[in-house]
Amino acid sequence: MCGIVGYIGHREAYPIILKGLKRLEYRGYDSAGIALYDGENIKLSKTKGKVDDLEKRINSEISTVGTLGIGHTRWATHGVPNDINSHPHYSNSGDLVIIHNGIIENYGTLKKELINRGYSFTSETDTEVLINLIEDIKKSENIKLGQAVQIALTQVVGAYAIAVFDKNKPNEIVVARLGSPLAIGIGDDEFFIASDASPFIEYTNNAIYLEDEEMAIVRRGKEIKVRKIKDDSLVNPYVQKLQLNLEQIEKGGYEHFMLKEIYEQPNAIKDTYRGRLLTDKAIIKMSGVEDNMKKFLNANRIIVVACGTSWHAGLVSEYIFENLARIPVEVEYASEFRYRNPVINENDIVIAISQSGETADTLAAIKLAKSKGAFVFGVCNVVGSSIARETHAGAYTHAGPEIGVASTKAFTTQITVLSLIALRLARAKGTISSSDFRHHLIELEMIPDKVEKALKSDDYVKSIAEIYKGTKNFLYLGRGYNFPVALEGALKLKEISYIHAEGYPAAEMKHGPIALIDENMPIVVIATKNGQYDKVVSNIQEIKSRKGKIIGIVTKGDQIVKELADHVIEVPETLESLSPLLTTIPLQLLSYHIAVMLDRNVDQPRNLAKSVTVE
Ligand code: G6P
After folding, report:
1. Burial status of residue 124 (CB atoms within 10 A of its CB: 0-12, 13-18, 19 or more)
2. Domains in the chain, start-ordered, CATH in brackets?
């Protein structure tokens, strides 16, 4: 978590850093700060709150002149969010300044040693310990900043992406990474540093992504030097051409990124299957799967590891893989899997799903699975992310940047990719007939248009949101493919409206949640025609007898649920295995509208962050 930005070059650093921080706020937003070198001194301003709060106060605190600077937006780990714990942090002499994304686990021991050596600390952060460790090494060994950073990092246990500069050497910034992402944008005689490429995309599309345990010294007007932290060997960095464009990371007229991303889903799904789904030839082409077909065909089982919404997409895939490709699937929270000493063997395939490709628990689960000999396949959205690089093979979702903290288009594109993989394997294994396969391809190709139609319910969903916005609890029910959608609907509502919501398999309702139902309880029930429709209708009857308020998500033209429910939201008909791609749309809209009506910060809900790079 946390976003870091830096600039060194010929332009004014402040506007670049400020704008960059705003773009990185999805990574954390409980405090923000900037340090600039004004030609003589370091000027630093930081505050609890958002980047907007920093912007409001910075001009009254410091001059914002300078062509070298670093900035930070924080998601607190060590130390509550307050002005003092905000980054950047000075070293004791005031000569060095640092921003840090990650956690220094052994900071307590290091801090004690530094206190014994006369250092004092104003904040509760691990980061202030790191900058003083660097200063101590630099002074005691009389070495350059880069060398001191390198030695300090060999003493550190934990994760970091850092940027440090020294006011006595104002022509360089030292950066390093282990476990937290760090991109360096390369312009003409200028460098940009950031947690992802969004802060510098309008200036350059050439970027280097540091690998774990690498550091770089970026010097004004000089070539960049990247080296391994441990053995000091020089690395020839790969300069990547970025595909990102500015419109993708702006709101484009929508009130919130979340709404924009909900509406982007028809195109995002198309982008996901473009070039892979060849309906006229009745084939699916996915190089990551093709190249490893033998492994997939020999797989005893698939273990899916993921967190949050990606875990829900994994649950949907359990139904898809088992049904179509007849491969047993287990879906695991990455955070549980990694600490459970799981039984994994060489014929297991681990599929790691992650929008950001940076989630610490998922990354650790991958490393564990690899160490036990499993083949690990990644399903990521962010190209070049840590998980994309750590996995043996993979398939990108191509959803484009997702900025709203509550995940929407990542979910539907993950399901799209997983459906493509399952269908491809089903074909290869012969567990699907050619006519059924073709039918699936045709239906999948029609999904973007059907999502478009599902989005037409927006105004109606808004009117339902108006009725239930004051409710304290919600229940979401679904069965089969739509049970994970119920979980996801409940998660969306919790995340952005702060209303308590639970997702449940509809039939399990009688084993507990039914006790909660009274005339004040809204229950969202997904009751599409091709699922276990009759069973769900019985569940709806049970709710009705207890006077619960029913919001049915039904297939267009449904009459039975319409008679029973208080409200029905229609989605177009499709194959049951693809129905999550449609039923999830009204649930996203419902949570969105309730959150807006409650005046919540939709794109940056409290306490959350988009990319959880701490465990
Ligand atoms: C955070 C985000 C969620 C996301 C989860 C997993 O909790 O707020 O939206 O689903 O992390 O993230 P990943 O990037 O691995 O999909």
Report:
1. middle
2. 3-248 (3.60.20.10), 251-448 (3.40.50.10490), 456-601 (3.40.50.10490)
| Residue 470: C-alpha distances to residues 516, 517, 602 (Å) | 17, 16, 17
Q: Is the CB of 354 under 6 A from ligand 1?
A: yes
Q: Which candidate, 344, 404, 411, 349, places its Cα nearest to that of 378?
A: 349
Q: Are residues 114 and 133 in contact, defined by beta-carbon separation less than 8 angstroms?
A: yes
3-state secondary structure of 144: coil
| CA 612 / ligand 1 centre spacing (Å) | 7
Kindly report the protein residue whose alpha carbon is nearest to atom 2 of ligand 1: 610
- Ligand 1 mean position, distance from CA 613 (Å): 10
Query: How many whole angstroms separate alpha carbon 461 and alpha carbon 339?
Result: 41
Ligand 1 binding pocket includes 308 (Cβ within 6 Å):
yes
Question: What pLDDT was estimated at residue 607?
Answer: 86
In order, the DSSP letters of 218-266 are EETTS--EEEETTT--EE----EEP---GGGGS-TT-SSHHHHHHHTHH
Confirm if 396 and 411 have CB atoms less than 8 A apart.
no
CB distance 163 to ligand 1 below 6 Å:
no
Centroid of chain to Cα 458: 25
Q: In what order do the strands lie in the sheet with 172-178?
A: 89-90, 96-104, 158-166, 172-178, 214-219, 225-228, 234-235
Measure 379 CA to ligand 1 centroid, in angstroms.
13
With 90 as the cut, is the pLDDT of residue 596 above it? yes
Instruction: Calculate the CA dihedral of residues 289, 292, 296, 299 and round it to 10 degrees.
Output: -150
Task: Write down the pTM of the prediction.
Answer: 0.84
For a substitution probing ligand 1, which of 1, 180, 304, 310 has the most ligand atoms within 8 Å of its CB? 310
Please identify every residue annotated as catalytic. 2, 610
pLDDT, tens digit, for every residue of 209-225? 999 999 999 999 888 99
What pLDDT, on a 0 to 100 scale, did the predictor assign at position 209? 94
Whole-number percent of the chain with pLDDT over 90: 85
Residue nearest to atom 8 of ligand 1 (CA): 610
Residue nearest to atom 4 of ligand 1 (CA): 308
